[in-house]
Amino acid sequence: MKLLALDTSTEACSVALLNGNELLTLDEVCPQQHSKRVLPMVQQLLTDSGLSLAQLDGLVFGKGPGSFTGVRIGVGVAQGLAFGADLPVYGVSTLAAMAQAAYRQLQASQVLAAIDARMAEIYFGHYQLDANGLMQLQGQEQAVKPDQLAPLDSGKDFTAVGTGWQTYAEVLQQWQSAKSSDILYPSAQDMLPQARQAWDAGHFVAAEQAEPSYVRDTVSWQKLPGR
């Protein structure tokens, strides 16, 4: 199986290439530079692997949630590459990717993923490891004010991932028992386990069907006086 994954939904820009049992990855924290960096990173991995885009089986992209602009860049780049090489695509949640990283790095089985969503909110998801080693969403991903989150079972051993835990540390004290981690951003390599299962299940779609997941679909702006 040959899959290329990319994500630009947060401050990080990430690309991963799976070629059979070989995995190549590039991760950079480069705020507002994604549109300049992602294609050179893709080309570097293709060159290092000796593959062309047309030799791949499919493309995987981070579908969000995250920065509106970043999510759009990732979806757009994935669509453009897929159209050019006639490849199917599959989108993976950025929250799920961070949860998967917690399993890969820390063997975590219960993960609370929170990305700073600005506007005093976080993108939040609770994930649990299944029997196949994949993180599965419990309930729904949501854009929510941290102090409005419903309490979870305090008896479980949670691991916290994402920038939301740093930005709103005081508000999220209700989960002081959650183990902190160094996982702040999604990495494309952690989208591949879910993508492989999706490939086996026939869930990849044509490029024109690639859709983002903003979670927060509408943003209300308060007009300034006299505007």
UniProtKB/TrEMBL annotation:
Residues 28-174 form the Gcp-like domain. InterPro entries: ATPase_NBD, Gcp-like_dom, T6A_TsaB. GO terms for molecular function: tRNA N(6)-L-threonylcarbamoyladenine synthase activity. Keywords: Acyltransferase, Transferase. The keyword Chloroplast does not apply. The keyword Nucleotidyltransferase does not apply. This is tRNA threonylcarbamoyladenosine biosynthesis protein TsaB. The gene is tsaB.
